[in-house]
UniProtKB/TrEMBL annotation, chain A:
GO terms for molecular function: transmembrane transporter activity. Keywords: Cell membrane, Membrane, Transmembrane, Transmembrane helix. This is ABC transporter permease. It is a multi-pass membrane protein. GO terms for cellular component: plasma membrane.
Amino acid sequence: MRWELEPNPTRGKVLGAYALFLLLALFLLGLIFLAYGVPPLKAYALLFSPLTDTLGLAEVARRTIPLLLIGSGLALAFRVGFFNIGAEGQLLLGAVGAAYVALFLPPGPWTLPLMFLLGGSLGAVWVGIAAWLRVRFGANEILTTLMQNYLAYYLVVYLVAGPWKGRQVFGFLYTDRFPPEAQLPRLGDTLVHWPTLVLGIAAALLLQTLLFRTPLGFEWRILGENPKAARYLGLKQGRLLLLAALSSGLLAGLSGVGEVAGIHLRLLEPAQISLGYGFTAILVAWLARGRPLGVLLTAPLLGLVLAGGDALKLALSMPFRVVDVVAGLLLLSFIGAEALSRHRLVWRR
Amino acid sequence: MEEALLRAVLFGTPILLASLGALLSERGGVVNLGVEGMMALAALAAFAVGLEAHPVLGVLAGVGVGSLLGLFLGVFAVSLRANQFVAGLALAALGLGASGLLGKRYEGVPLPNPLPEGVLAALALALAFGLHLLFFRTRFGLYLRSVGENPKAADLFGVSVDGVRYGALALGGGLIGMAGAYLSLAYRPSWTDGMTSGLGWVAIALVILAAWQPLRAVFGAYLFGLLFFLQFRLQGSVPIPSEAFAAMPYLLVILVLALSGRARAPKALGQPFDRGR
């Protein structure tokens, strides 16, 4: 009995593999809920509860925004072969850039554009370091970008506890509130800062077009699928890689601007700025299979997971870590199903 | 001075154990990015068993959970031939999440009879030498290295590539689990969410710095231990914000990776093995 490659699996087999692995993931999740001491069905109901009312849907939408921006950038970066795991840090750098403009530059109609500009640039510079280290020294970008997350984390903690700590706040670790010119408009009473949402959708469309309709995108895809061929064709690998990495960092930076200018209206502790969007977006990008447009579907899905995790936290005072569990299981079941559908069991040696 | 060296060894021990665990599977061609999550879950299991039964049984529980998680990763990375990097990251998230969730009831509970750090530190050092002998003096070591360098050739000689890789993941997972047990039973005899604080990632980077040699990992781990000690010692006595000190280990990992980025890795590292290809 052995395992063989199956290049063209039937649609039914692919669907079956995904269904099997999703069921396994739900089963394992149920076991973890049980071990925690919560009836699994009740927990599942809460996980999906945001879908049942408009307020819940707004919560899903709000969490979809950063996932959309970061996810489409990561879909591109993964496709080209740059495993940017540091979107969390790039998001934080974007928030820092936005806060600098909001707090220290004279406010005016230019404030918001300038926040996006500086925040996005800082995100790009941040990932640019890792990209440069990879191109120049061959340093593994999975580890460098991951380490940079910790650096960004401590940078933000330092800023909100030290030099940027608000004058009107006492025991808390955050800056003063942003002036009105530095606040993004929201939809009604919700926390949906729609300009960033529009930006996210535009980013997905733009990257999809770039990747599949332009010479640059063609070179990107060659580099990602077959680096050897890229070398024989004389493509400028370093520059292509850097460009894809910078795009993903820029978008992650923009998402950080959206979070502080649209929701928190100040710079605060890193764990409060981002609910692990950087990591969740890896899932978003992976599920979209390297197609920026696919992110339009997968970002809301993971947005639901984050909103559902919040519901579990509120209703059962469960640690928010539950989101990591769901995300990890989803990712495993997805790659497992993908792999299973590409293979078949053969009953001979 | 003596105190500094002692603390360096004691703090370097979990890094060493986890690093040896990651190194073992990487020698067989399987990247394990799940170390951080495996360590966290093993630390929790070790603490729970140590509290309810006995700390020595706790170590065994940590090692066992680590091994099981290694095999779990193997299902994806070896049998299903999935992307090892993504599978590892998913396992890291799952382990951190599940340990945070299930460990909530143990937060802040003290362990009445912790294990002596020195014994486990000595054991870790012995294990490093043991691994060196395993790699270069035994048949399994030869199989392991050949599977990591050229699985096709190993397969032609009748070595079970998948079997050796599962074995490496189980053994390595056990070492990673022991690192977790050391944290929750000896080093800081307690359980807190996030108590692995990035040590798993440091351990993965150390594998590259050590150029996949167990004995070099010993020096690297103690060097990191010394730096962590200096960080605690200098904090507050110099006019540098404490956040800068806290960030130092991570900055160091980046420097290490830049300096040793082109170190020669096992040739088949990260590549799933398919006989038909």
